[in-house]
Design goal:
Length: about 250
């Protein structure tokens, strides 16, 4: 299956590069700057979220047979999740920002991850066959896709029966519990989309995943990531969405 995807992806690399704004100013400059920031300015966040990632990924990925299993990660970024994946795992990656690759590819080699990029978007995964991947991962990604519902339906389609979608996402603050943070998120959301590669501060991603009927079961936890430096992205959800098993 990986070989099939590699062949299909090779034919549309030019389309991916065009859509990512390579060579265009200032759009390409913003993409490049955002990739640099994700590589060099996320230490505080990654340290704070480490217990959540460690628990989620070890519970659901540790048992994967790396000789035959495939994981799809949407919004791969700089490959920050590779440290939690089993060594030798085959990972299909969706990452429209091509400037992320200079950071993700060396990290994949360090963690013995077999990495294949898909030249497409998370809403348009037709090059991935139905029921062909064992797990899908999204961390800090559904905040920036154009159509979250379309992405979730694509995730459910490509998962094998019984497969799992693992997610960690920042979300809109509860207006009852954190009214001032919710107000600030809404006020700054347009600016956030410009400086953070399309990221929205005000998405209710946990509720959206829980409401999708394409999954047989969804477990969602809501929490605040500690650290004042994280500010408006501290409200989070994490969890697992299960595709119905056969039979």
């Amino acid at each position: 299956m990986v070989a099939f995807v590699q062949t299909q992806a090779a034919g549309v690399v030019a389309e991916e590069q065009a859509s990512s704004g390579v060579g265009l100013f200032p759009f390409s400059w913003r993409k490049r700057a955002f990739a640099y920031a994700m590589e060099h300015d996320m230490d505080t966040y990654e340290s704070a979220i480490e217990p959540v990632k460690s628990a989620l990924f070890s519970a659901h990925l540790k048992a994967l047979d790396v000789t035959s299993s495939t994981l799809l990660e949407i919004g791969l970024g700089t490959g920050a999740n590779f440290a939690y994946y089993p060594r030798g795992l085959h990972v299909l990656a969706v990452e429209p920002n091509v400037h992320m690759r200079q950071y993700a590819e060396p990290r994949a080699r360090r963690h013995a991850i077999h990495l294949t990029y898909l030249a497409t978007t998370a809403e348009n995964l037709q090059i991935v066959p139905d029921a062909s991947v064992d797990a899908v991962v999204s961390t800090l990604t559904l905040c920036s896709v154009d159509d979250p519902r379309a992405v979730l339906n694509q995730i459910a389609r490509v998962l094998k029966p019984g497969g799992r979608f693992l997610f960690i996402e920042h979300v809109c603050a509860d207006p009852q519990q954190h009214p001032w943070m919710n107000l600030a998120q809404r006020a700054l959301d347009p600016l956030q989309q410009i400086v953070a590669d399309g990221c929205h501060l005000c998405r209710g991603t946990g509720d959206l995943i829980a409401a999708e009927r394409c999954f047989a079961r969804v477990d969602v936890s809501r929490f605040q990531v500690p650290g004042s430096a994280l500010g408006l992205i501290s409200p989070h959800v994490s969890g697992v969405a299960y595709k119905k098993a056969e039979g």
